[in-house]
Amino acid sequence: MQFMKTRFNYLFGSTKGLTLIAIAVVSLITAIFGTLSGPMVEWGIRDVVVRLLKMELIPAAREGRIIMLYHTIAMTIVAIEVYFITELVPMKRHEQTMINATITVGYLISVVFGMAFAYWGRNFAFHGLFLLGQSLVFFAGILLAVALVPWKKEYRLPADSLLARTKSGLDLERVAFFVMAVSTLLSAAFGAVSGSYWSNGHETFLAEDLIRNPFKTYLQKAIIGHLHIMLTLIAIAITLIVGRWLNFKGILHRIAMPLMISGTVIITAGALSVVWVEAAHTIIYVGSVFVMLSALFFVIYSWGMLIREGTAGIEKPTFGQKIKALLRDPIKFGPGWQMVFMNFTVSGVGIFMAVKLTEIFRVWPHREERIILTGHWHILASLIATIILFYIADLSGLKGKIRKWFGWTIIIMSNIAFASVTIFSMKRLFVTEAEQQNVVNWTMLLTDIGLATVLLVLAIFMVWRLLDLFKAKGWWTQEYKSEIKRSAEIEIEEQKRKLKELEETLKEVEK
Amino acid sequence: MKRIIMSLRAVFAKQPPSSNGRFLRAIALATTLILIASCAPAPSVAAITPPYIDTGIDHESWALIPAGSFPYGQHDHITDVDYDYEMMVTPVTNEQFGRFLNEALAAGAIRVGEVEVETGEQVWVEVGAHGFYPGDPYDGYKHEEEIKPGDKLFFPTEADGVRITFDGQIFRAIHEYSNHPATMVTWFGAKAYCEFYGWRLPSEIEWEKAARGTELVDGRGLAFPWGTHIERNNANYYSSFDLFVKMFGKLGNTTPIGFYNGKTYTLAEGSYTTLDSASPYGLYDMAGNVWQWTGDDYPKQHYRHMRGGSFYSYEVDLRVWKFNSAGPQHYSPQVGFRCAR
Fold it and tell me: What integer pLDDT is reported at residue B7 of this predicted model?
């Protein structure tokens, strides 16, 4: 019993434990439902899985299933980001506990009942519970926003702080987290309102199927705005998280944070105004520039920091020594690199498409355009996932060769996969349909190899963490102890501050 | 530059190779090998000719679709078609389309030679059969492409993947492909074919009704012409592993019209048993093989819709309500058509 209790406390009572569970859930979802498409269908694995798990795949419900799948994965990823935020951003311990508990229950209910509804028989009680889970995740978001309120006195920064701040000491990074959280809540509500019309004036659809339709309903536009802004906000959140993880500070931080705050507000307003405003895309472009500039400043800072730390002690480091310093730790180099790589496979492709839409892409058949659209946002989502993995690897204390193998495998193999997907999706630029077989075969093969290797590395990592849980003095015990210690220290600080406040109040009264 | 090279040497050459360095080199080597291998020739649809296969289905036959309502679209909206009409049992074949080109050429309805193709902001010249099209109404809507009156390409004679040759006077279907669906035909060409014989391209509603019929199973219309689910040997699609996949690799190729009729075919590549996959009205190839042009012109966009999915589609695109779209000038090895009357 004690065996179970201690592990349970670690898994559900610590940031690292909660994160591990969430990653295990995403891995499980990927492992099971990833077999239902792509090469798994070609190899016949889909049919085996469907038979084995007794899934009920109604052809007309495919789009609905995919939407449920996206939502359950999104809920879990949002939960992981929330765990990171409650750990990294100063807040009261009871706030952290409440937020983490609520979101954990919420995403787990969403995943279990959402998937049960979508893949095993469309039982509407399950759909109701899926919505309950999402509501809890939303409620956790409200709690998070309250905890992140930036103008509380105790979170003001001193004048000598290296972090971005206003003259009155307002922590602008905290403001950025707060604005991101509030924007996410607004955007989630936007999706919820549209979703509430499901089968009541609104029918399930995938956005990429509607792109060429000149007449879209308000509900369709609302959902298109919702899905775009939610992924964007998840990307903004992870950028802020890795900034805190890698101790982003100094002049670049002071420039980046106002850009991130205003960019988040503008891009959210733009995405949601798609429903009514003709020029919504222009607003989105402006917001994107702000957000991307902010991310660029983070990349410059993080790479500069890696070079400085790696060449410490060398009086005049050569170019090669600087490169070596930059690349010596793939786990910390990775987030910045993936953000840069994102420009080649996501932002660059998106801008090229926008510029050449009528000249090139609308000349191609719809299916070709659809491949690019689905390809680029899958890549963005996967790049975010790899950045999360870098942070988790660091949290798990990976060191030495294993750290390098883990980091470089994820960077190289994910980049091979995403570059291949990009080439595949843009193939019509350089090869005709009649002659495309080579390009299709090899880009698909490289994509499969790249993604399979990343998933294999993730699986090895997860098995290691699972086996570790069976050890009496495994890695998990150290993690748990260090979290309890840190938590106690923060609690003591809080109590001291509270005590001081109470004493001051008493003095005031006694006067 | 010299400094950069010296620095790189300092990193890579002067250091004994670490396991990390070896790993990176192994990755780089493997990637290079794969990229080099990708330059090796693979069979293309244009390069190989399959054997002639007689499926026993008459490509001159028509099926009657009686008036009445049917479940339309993914969400089964009951829609009424208040007239009888007929649809070709199979897509137009290369033999039929070649015959049309010769007859239309002789009648002066088409010409062969260079023709300007205009789409979006692009204009280029192609060589092929072409004829007049009166244009589409234009509203100047955002992203709307103007389809002006003028000579339009029907069928390119010199593009990769054509199965009908032209010797300057006569069009001839390549024998082995003569009973395959006619591909590389633009929407203009498909419309011209149907109208030359007094027929028309089916509307999307007509096409879908002919594909799925009126039956409801558990409150839903059929997802595929033959029923509610798809097996690999129901249709020619990506990863269906038919005989043509063995010949042409993973992308496959078109199959002869009516190939999926329950027969077993034995070739040098092996034998392959098909399921009888006719629609409720007896139409073949309403899912897979080639996308099929439909006749509607939608205002404010002018993309023409195609139905049915192709040998290069995943099975999800074979569901009867799925559509693809392209400008009417588009042609492709995976796009064909059939007529209605």
Answer: 43
Helices (H), A246-311: 251-272, 280-310
Range in B5-14, B207-216, B235-244, B264-273 with the lowest mean pLDDT? B5-14
Chain B contact for A200 (CB, 8 A cutoff): no
Q: Can you tell me the distance from the alpha carbon of A87 to that of A15, in angstroms, rounded to the nearest whole number?
A: 7
Dump the DSSP string for A141-161.
HHHHHHHT-TT-GGGPPPTT-
Q: Domain boundaries in chain A?
A: 471-511
Angle between helices B2-12 and A319-327 (to 10 degrees): 50
A250-264, A409-423, B96-110, B138-152: least confidently modelled range = B138-152
Identify whether the C-beta of residue B79 lies closer than 8 Å to the C-beta of residue B72: yes
pLDDT digits (tens, 9 = 90+) for A410-448: 999 999 999 999 999 999 888 888 788 888 889 989 999
Residues of A in contact with B76 (CB under 8 A): 60
* B301 contacts A320? CB cut-off 8 A: no
So where are chain B's domains? 62-336
State how far the Cα of A35 lies from the Cα of B73, in Å rounded to an integer: 27
Q: B250 and A440 in contact by Cβ < 8 A?
A: yes
Contacts of A433 in chain B (CB under 8 A): 45, 160-161, 312, 332-334
Q: Which residues pair with B266 in a beta bridge?
A: B271
- A451-494: pLDDT as tens digits: 999 999 999 999 999 999 999 888 899 889 998 998 889 889 88
The residue behind tokens 């009680």 is A125
Question: How many angstroms away from the CA of A108 is the closest CA of chain B?
Answer: 29
Q: Which residues from A are below 8 Å from B224, CB to CB?
A: 59
- What is the fold, at CATH topology level, of the domain defined by B62-336? paralog of FGE (formylglycine-generating enzyme) (3.90.1580)
pLDDT at res. B243: 83
How does pLDDT run across A238-274, given as a tens digit for each residue? 999 999 999 999 999 999 999 999 999 999 999 999 9
Q: What is the 3-state secondary structure (H, E, C) of A168-234?
A: CCCEHHHHHHHHHHHHHHHHHHHHHHHHCCECCCECCCCHHHCCCCCCCCHHHHHHHHHHHHHHHHH
List CB contacts (< 8 A) between A319 and chain B. 3-4, 7
Contact criterion met (CB below 8 Å) for B6 and A318 = yes
For chain B, the farthest-separated pair of C-alpha atoms sits apart, in whole angstroms, at 84
- Please say whether the beta carbons of B181 and B255 come within 8 A: no
Q: At residue B12, does pLDDT exceed 90?
A: no
User: For residue B122, what are the β-bridge partners?
Assistant: B119
- For chain A, positions 463-492, list CB contacts with chain B under 8 A: none
More confident residue, B3 or B321: B321
> What ipTM describes this predicted complex?
0.87
Encoded amino acid at B85, one letter: Y
Amino acid occupying residue A455: L
Q: Name the residue with tokens 């090998």.
A: B33
Q: Which residues of A touch B320 (CB under 8 A)?
A: none
Interface check for A365 against chain B (CB to CB < 8 A): the answer is yes
| Partner B contacted by A323 (CB < 8 A) | yes
CB burial string A146-183: b at 16+ within 10 A, e below: ebbebeeeebbbeeeeebbbeeeeebbbbbbbbbbbbb
* Residues facing B220 on adjacent strands: B217
In chain B, residues with a C-beta closer than 8 Å to the C-beta of A360 are: 120
* pLDDT at position A362 over 90: no
Q: Provide the chain A residues 399-428 that lie in CB contact (below 8 A) with chain B.
A: 401, 404-405, 408, 412-413, 416
Q: Which residue among A60, A214, A360 sits closest to B220, beta carbon to beta carbon?
A: A60
Cα-based angle B101, B106, B112 (whole degrees, multiple of 5)? 55
Question: How high is the pLDDT of residue B45?
Answer: 52
